[in-house]
Amino acid sequence: MRWRILGLLFLARIGIGFQFQTVASVGDDLVVAFGLSYADIGFLIGLFMAPGLFLAIPAGYWGRYVSDRIMVVAGLGALAIGGVASSLAGDSWIIGIGRVCAGVGFLFTSLYFTKMVADWFEGREIATAMSILVMSWPFGIAMGQVGHAWLAQTYGWQVPFQVASIYCLIAALVVYFLYRPPHDLPDAPGGAQVALSGQEWRLILCAAAAWGVFNAAYVTFLAFAPKVLESHGQSAIAAAGIISVGSWIMIFSGAACGQFVDRVGGRNIVLAVCMGGAVAALLLLGLPGAGFGASVLFGLIGMAPAGVIMAMAGQAMRPQVRAFGMGIFFTVYYAIMWITPPVAGAILDATGKTQGPLFLAMILFAAVVPLGIAFQFFKDAPMMGQEGKV
């Protein structure tokens, strides 16, 4: 049953990446239509993350009183509404409002999809399950990299937003009618009085920072790697297609990596090898004619441990505090994700070099390794704090 539930959640969660990728795919069209800079495009990309800074902790609290299913359905609905609002924009600030609305949906869905899988797979192939779940994000992004570019060129920049919104709406209906929670999920004794221990706080902060810098580096790659290939003579659609190869490959490499860590262990060794591969791929991308090989290396090695990193969140806390703990996790994640895209865009504006933002991505990927080591250190340490009250 849990694998069928995972398949359902995977298909629904594709809508997050599909909607997120819209601005990155039509960024050049928005620059022309509204006179924006690339820092502005980075800001619009980052707005998708902004609501998480303010709503992640409240969303974690609300999960004590509202079912996971309803929270996810509401989030997918907000993603759909935000996409429609952006598609109707006559000015760039309206696109911004649409992105914020979609970002609210991104927050609720990301938090509760993760919690659902942690609830279903606690103690049972959790790294594998999380790897499969998080691969829905690059799957949706890869669909957008190819599909959005074609839709925008054929029908106009508004259509990718609308198509992504339709997908999110269908996903909301599917989750509402088909999702069921696990029967053996323990209740949170004391309700709102149950709180995180000191050790859980440390573990969550390490896991959240690792997940944040990893995804910020990935988003920077998605937004700016195609421009590197375009500077080498590729068309916009060809460049998007080449870069999307990495996202398609990581769907399979991520599941394999999660299975490996579940069976063999060695999480930090895996992280070190894979982050080295990610940095190597970004360096290789700067060489003319090496775009396809760099994208393959990036997807096969660099992005493989996505689910392994996300599994750290599920391993950091007890089920009774998981909703609130995921609120903390995503607050840190969204802070990193909100800041990074405009910084990357500003680097491109300031230097005029398409490779510039990718050096930022390399630094972020490298930071995953010490954060993973810190997580293991705190997890192995004796329990320093006791359960408290929020």
Structure description:
With 390 residues, the protein is mainly alpha-helical. The protein contains 16 helices and no strands. Helix 1 runs antiparallel to helix 6. The longest helix is centred in the middle third of the chain and has 34 residues. The radius of gyration is 20 Å and the shape is globular. The relative contact order is 0.17.
What is the oligomer described by this structure? single chain
Count of DSSP strands: 0
Helical content stands at over 70%
How would a crystallographer describe the biggest sheet? none
What structural category do the secondary elements indicate? Answer: mainly alpha
Mean pLDDT: 87
Distance between the termini: 35 Å
Rg computed from alpha carbons, rounded to a whole number of angstroms: 20 Å
Could you name the ranges where pLDDT drops below 50 across 5 or more consecutive residues?
187-192, 384-390
General form: globular
Q: Provide the succession of SSEs.
A: HHHHHHHHHHHHHHHH
- Percent of sequence in beta strands: under 5%
Count of helix runs:
16
Keywords:
390 residues; disordered C terminus
SSE layout and pairing:
Elements: H1 2-25, H2 27-34, H3 38-47, H4 51-62, H5 68-87, H6 92-121, H7 126-134, H8 136-155, H9 158-178, H10 198-231, H11 236-264, H12 267-285, H13 291-302, H14 306-315, H15 322-351, H16 356-380
Helix pairs in contact: 1-3, 1-6, 1-7, 1-8, 1-9, 3-15, 4-6, 4-15, 5-6, 5-9, 6-7, 6-15, 7-11, 7-14, 8-9, 8-11, 10-11, 10-14, 10-15, 10-16, 11-13, 12-13, 12-16, 15-16
